[in-house]
Amino acid sequence: MEDALLLARAQFGLNIGFHIMFPTLTIALAWYLLGFRIAYQRTGDAAWLATFKLWLKVFALTFAMGVVTGVTMSFQFGTNWPRYMTTVGAIAGPLLSYEVLTAFFLEATFLGIMLFGMSRVPNWVHIASCAVVAFGTTVSAFWILALNSWMHTPAGHVFADGQWIAADWLAVIFNPSFPYRLAHMLIASGLTASFVVAGLSAWRLLWAPFDTSAGKTLRAGLMVAAALVPVQIFVGDQHGLNTLEHQPAKIAAIEALWQTERGAPLVLFAIPNEVTKRNDYSIELPYGASLILKHDQRAEIRGIESFGEDRPAVAPLFFGFRIMVGIGVAMLLVSWVGTWATRGKRAAPRWMLWVLAAFTFSGWVATLAGWIVTEVGRQPWLVTGVLRTKDAVGQATGAQLGASLTGYILTYATLFIAYMIVLTHMAGKGSTPDDDPPAASGEAAVTVARAAG
Amino acid sequence: MDLAIVFMFLMGASILAYVLLDGYDLGVGMLMPAATDDEQSIMVASIGPFWDANETWLVLGIGILLAAFPRAHGVVLGALYLPVVAMLVGLMLRGVAFELRVKAQGWHRELWNWLFWAGSFIASFFQGVMLGRYITGFEPGFFYWVFALLVGASLCGGYVLLGATWLILKTEGDLQKKAVAWTRWGLLWVGLGVALVSLATPLVSETVRYKWFDFPRTLWLMFLPLASIGAGWWLWRSTSALKRGAKDLDARPFGAAALIFTIAFLGLAYSIYPYVVIDRLTIWDAAAHPSALKALFIGSVVVLPFIVAYTILSYRVFRGKARAKLYD
Ligand code: HDD
Ligand code: HEM
Ligand code: HEM
Prior knowledge:
With 453 residues, chain A is mostly helical.
């Protein structure tokens, strides 16, 4: 049973962790594409069209990865957590269905027009389709994060007829952590996409310094990132304060504070030791945690031990959080220096291009680290105070789980390697004129004749 | 109003929509090896704008099962664990291969073509296996599994038929001629499969046998098999006419194939009703709490008309024959 639980958790974590990489990119990339498309419409500049077409391909590929891994997710609740659906299904079910109804069909249908319809529909319809796709991805994030936030900070539910049902849907959806999580996640998406756009453009400029399209996208990515990072840091701080109120054990683990104390220090680095229940090799800033969390250096912070058994593992939270915040601070530095270095119409210096290329996928790392903090921090609960993870596991046997886990790992590894190769290849090739002559790129009538003949 | 019944209909409708829509694009995927390089590009282009939205009907069907019949969702997907995983792996491979084959060259392209075919085939086959396991109430035992494999093979034939008729609709010239021939093979395959499955089902399930062989109801029910034979004949005739070079018949084979599927689906629905898990859970046993059903109902009534409307819009935008090039 223990094994099955562990495998079920590993499998779910692997699947959602793999899935989320692609939404994180597509949500914001869809808005970028809308911007590129509108820029082309307004200026008629062929470089914008080439830009749009190049990133449209990146988007299509990423979106496909998001869809196929997402379809897998929608089966996971039933296969891995059947008790989840019988206890809180009356709340989770409708939220998941609203996501399908209001977001998935919208995205998937208008994606067709966005990708392949440019020459078949009037410009405004094409632009509207790009807008609808972007809107759809964001709505999708809205619903799934409403559900996920409800699992962290449940509200608006009552126990009736042997299960939990919604007494007040608005309270369920706009539960205490939802606004923070939605804002934090959408900005995380914005940052991830910005660094991918800027990073791949930098990669291209390293080989082809005069690619005008890559120059434009480099600047766009840098500027959006520079604007978003400070907002993200602020939102993250507020998110943390809110969590302190509703899930204090999570914060205690993030800060690696074992004992309740007044004037708690900020642990900068340590190796949390679950056996001795203290930190090894720690470097601390006196009064730091009390100051940051309560804005009062003498304030009391509850320690991990005071939560007894109902607390998460410390190390993943402690390190996950520091990875996320570390990347956040580094992103601030890179995006501001980068924006400054490219001010006016200045070309970015080569070292800057190398730094940006190195930061291409930093958003993924921060996002995954953030999710691990959030989700592991909820343990041992699946729904805080309502349902424990170990009580939700299904009847799938260890052998079944092991076999399917192996299948997923092999498939994901294959898909991911292929995805990365194609992505870097496309970016490296860029959208140079001889590859994609603007005059012939509007899915011209020529191709029709060729296909028909 | 009995919302459990309403959602049974909605779930049925979205599964049928899924089978008809993703069925044709899976079928096109399975037909890939039979075509030349250039033809393959056209075939892929004919499903490009649609496959993603088609797959969403599966997500909706599963979503309704999850939200409206949560107890059944756990039982059904738990019992179908491995075929579901296999199907998902198939869907993943083909979805991504679809994108990658456009961007790759040389042997890479060959590899993705092959994976696109394999993924389509695996997904179709295991959907059939799931169906076969489902009809028999997940009974263990050798013959039940043979039956499930048989259903898997038949469903592949069915999807090939849908795919081939879709190609008749969306292509012209040599490729269309080939599609006519594929349609005929597909129809034979389906006819054989449906006959075997129809004969075997009453043998493996007592509940089903009772429902079909209960005079005088049986006489009325004979309408269903007769209608599907009629639709099959109509389909065969239209392919003969196409072979002779008839015009304006491009849409008919697909319509007839869809009709065959719909009839088979109705027969199946009749066999199973009022169960969601045969002999174990009726739709009322499995239904979610009324508060959840109500919330779902409101959302579905408001949103589904829009979904249908813009789905039609997208098919209108991409009406006519497919072109070889997808992007630029
Ligand atoms: C913050 C955003 C977010 C999160 C946390 C999740 N998803 Fe997701 N999902 C999306 C954002 C998204 C998206 C942006 O809407 C996707 C990704 C890329 C895409 O193609 O659509 C998508 C695709 C997608 C699809 C395919 C949709 C289609 O057919 O078009 C399904 C079925 C799911 N997801 C299901 C899930 C489930 C069951 C999740 C949780 C357990 C989940 N997703 C987490
Ligand atoms: C999108 C990014 C997400 C990531 C990266 C993520 C990651 C994880 C991880 C790593 C676990 C395992 C934790 C552990 O076992 O210690 C987990 C558990 C879980 N999460 Fe998430 N999660 C995400 C979003 C969601 C969402 C949106 C939902 C539901 C709506 C959700 C529902 C669950 C459930 C049901 C479990 C199972 C319980 C468990 O394994 O502990 N997650 N997630
Ligand atoms: C630099 C300052 C940052 C702070 C103070 C901060 C704070 C936090 C906190 C406290 C949580 C956990 C909330 C909870 O579980 O209750 C969290 C989660 C998360 N963080 Fe950050 N964060 C920062 C930067 C970033 C960056 C740069 C990214 C990504 C680009 C990011 C992505 C995420 C994600 C995806 C989650 C999980 C979802 C959620 O709970 O919102 N964070 N963050």
